Known about the structure:
Order of helices and strands of chain A: HHEHHEEH
Shape of chain A: elongated
Shape of chain B: elongated
Strand content of chain A: 15-25%
Number of strands of chain B: 1
Distance between the termini of chain B: 29 Å
Helix content of chain B: over 70%
Oligomer: heterodimer
Strand order of the largest sheet of chain A: 1-3-2
Radius of gyration of chain A: 14 Å
Largest interface: A-B, 36 and 29 residues
Number of helices of chain A: 5
Strand content of chain B: under 5%
Number of strands of chain A: 3
Helix content of chain A: 40-55%
Amino acid sequence: MNREHERNEGSELDRIIHEPSRLKIIAQLYVVESADYTFLMKQLDFTWGNLSSHIAKLENAGYIEVTKEFVNKKPLSTVKLTKEGRRAFEQYRENIKQMLDV
Amino acid sequence: MNEEIDLVRLEQATFRTANQDGLTELWMGLMILAIALVLVQAAFAATVAFLILYQAVLNEKIKEKYTYPRIGKVKLRNEKEMPSGYGWLIVVALMIPALAAVVFSQRIENDLLLLIANLAPVLVGIGLVPPAAYLVERSGLRSYYGIGAIAVILSGILVLVEFSTPAYRMVSYLALVGALFVLTGILSLFRFVRKYPILEVEEMSDEPGA
């Protein structure tokens, strides 16, 4: 277990989440149960490639879970925030608040 | 990143995006029209039962065909809490007695029952306010209050108009409100389909880096 975010817990900002594009993705996923790639791309105004690379990083960090399936013979990837991701985002918000309050 | 993350606004924006296809309004309208049909002829109760039972399935089929290929699929949180516990209580406490009074006023002669039956559109109109407030809360769009306002104002107008029976008044009211919802839903769906073209097949590929 050598995840980058583990080094950033506590009062430091989580660098995985802190990147603006990933912060957008994780905040979006925080307010929904799940969303597919198309929805995230449209809602966040990302390109497909950009979204894919950030999703991969968040998935590697264990913050999101990607489920791949075929619907009407078309690939469909659904993205969902994991409990760990939810906790990390809440911690990130807390840390940001503390930093700004100082 | 020093900007505040407004999760409420984000959730409202997501709700607006997910519901801009007009299907919510369309189904509400169809449900109201179906209730009007039951008041005209009790045999239409099967239509209402069919709508209630298959609404979710039919809605999903329509979304699969028109909505998801255009804007993608999102599952909102707390979708089942609609409106709120108290909101539902108001809806049920007003609408069921109102509709029951209209039905029974055709069979039983009672002054109080007749009075409630005559005022039934107003009760139903007020009963539509909590769902409107729910939509405002979820979407952040105050224009949804318009649904409640129109429903109440229209009910007030119809109460002042003379009808031969309370049932005719109620059916007219439900038909008008239902038709308004259906029209709004169809127009929204039409606008949605024109605004968002179906994504090309290669765009739909989910492979990272595609």
